[in-house]
Design a protein that fits this description.
It is a single chain. Helix 3 (48-63) packs antiparallel against helix 4 and helix 6 (157-167) runs parallel beside helix 7 (181-188). Strand 1, helix 5 and strand 2 (122-127) form a beta-alpha-beta unit. This protein has a four-stranded parallel β-sheet with strand order 2-1-3-4, with helices on both faces. The chain is of the alpha/beta class and 226 residues long. It has two domains: 29-79; 93-226, Rossmann fold (3-Layer(aba) Sandwich). The protein has helices at residues 30-33, 35-45, 48-63, 81-91, 106-118, 157-167, 181-188, 208-212; strands at 96-101, 122-127, 171-175, 193-197.
């Protein structure tokens, strides 16, 4: 039997089965057809540490809105990402937080560290250029550097992860790691990790802005058929 590929982003249903008891799903809807995978995932949530993490994450989600008992309900967001990070970490009773950050966001990393330390967290922070290893070590050519003809340290997310693993952090935070470098960090970090901000050099680290303007200023992103 051929399996239909999941494609939730193209779901045409207004009242979706994944969000409403009386909802519906189109052909290929994973909520309707992938019962074995859903059951397998729910088995994972029954693991004590996973289930508690998931429970607290959902509690935190609710805590980010005000007047939730109002009728009719209107979404009123009330917590910034930094406030959510602080509250969630306290709910989980974390003491030691790891921060893997891009050296280009050193000032932001310092501000984030100061704020988290002021709330009583012990911080272990590692910049992406840790080790000072030249890019030639991973076979980057001279013409492929940012500054051609100059020494450049490679981004070193594996070392970032290993240092945080060594420190036995309770929870880890990524701040501005490059595309690909963030992937390697996630591959090698042992503990659970959240993202505070992602890198977007052009849009002030707000990559979703390109989506909002893909119909106007960023039409070049859409490769339309001739």
């Amino acid at each position: 039997m051929k399996t239909t590929v999941t494609n939730c982003s193209h779901c045409p249903v207004a009242e979706k089965i994944c969000r409403s008891k009386n909802g519906k799903g189109p052909k290929g809807c994973p909520t309707k057809q992938d019962k074995k995978i859903l059951a397998s995932a729910m088995k994972e949530y029954r693991r004590v540490e996973v289930g508690e993490f998931a429970r607290v994450a959902s509690v935190q989600e609710g805590a980010c809105y005000a007047h939730r008992d109002a009728k009719p309900f209107v979404r009123i967001p009330s917590k910034t990402r930094i406030e959510e990070l602080i509250e969630f970490s306290k709910r989980m009773k974390y003491k030691k937080l790891g921060l893997a950050f891009c050296a280009g966001l050193a000032q932001e990393a310092l501000l984030l560290t100061d704020i988290l330390e002021s709330h009583g967290f012990e911080m272990v922070t590692v910049a992406c250029k840790v080790g000072g290893v030249p890019k030639e070590a991973i076979k980057v050519k001279e013409k492929e550097k940012v500054r051609i003809g100059q020494f450049e340290s490679m981004c070193n997310p594996i070392t970032q992860a290993k240092l945080l693993n060594q420190a036995k952090t309770d929870f880890n935070i990524m701040l501005g790691l490059c595309v690909g470098h963030d992937s390697l960090f996630l591959k090698y970090i042992r503990g659970l990790t959240t993202v505070f901000a992602v890198k977007d050099r052009v849009l002030g680290h707000n990559p979703i802005a390109a989506l909002y303007t893909s119909g106007t200023y960023y039409q070049k992103l859409l490769k339309r058929k001739p």
